[in-house]
Amino acid sequence: MSSKINMEQWEAKLSAVNIPKEEMNKLIMNFLITEGYVEAAKMFEKESGTAASMDLSTIQERMEIRRAVQSGQMDVAIDKVNDMNPEILETQEELFFHMQQQRLIELIRKGKTEEALQFAEEYLAPQGEEHPRFLEELERTVTLLAFHDAKSSPLGDLMDIAQRQKTASELNAAILHSQCLDKESRLPTLLKILFWSQAQLDDKCAYPHITDLVTGQLGLPSDPKSA
């Protein structure tokens, strides 16, 4: 390791970097809008004077759709999406398949075996024939019907709440894209870049790391507090 930068030197370097407050406010607003914090976005807009990049009333609609998927109400979610913008599901084949796949999973979860088989045959099988890349996922999902307790089966991951979250996130990103917004908040991306940059610097010098993202606390690698 070629050099060591102490806390005083590092803080001086940080102080020399000028980040406009307006840019920070835009980053915060982007996070609030993308993650769906409607009331917080309204309050932040009022207090900071940072204009939202969209009609904040549409956030509530998007969050209602997301919550519907997260609670397994797929018919409600699909109807709301189509009311908002039917092109979202009409033009995105993979998203549409995953929405239908989730509908099938919810039928299996409710023990509606015959209805699930009929649904798979009428709606999902044609998609598998038209788009072979969906066949593996379709087969895995339909195989759940072979188990008395699908949740405890080798394919039980499809029954987890995490599967709903995955579908909800995919749909949320598609809605944001249709509204010409970022598919995900810029803040997590910046944090990834931060940790990547720290890892790159580790090979070149010793310097204060961010040890607490909440407070922004710094600590030298040799400092026990940073361990």
Automatic annotation (TrEMBL):
Residues 58-115 form the CTLH domain. PANTHER family: RAN BINDING PROTEIN 9-RELATED (PTHR12864). It comes from the Eukaryota. This is CTLH domain-containing protein. InterPro entries: CRA_dom (IPR013144), CTLH/CRA (IPR024964), CTLH_C (IPR006595), LisH (IPR006594), Ubq-SigPath_Reg (IPR050618).
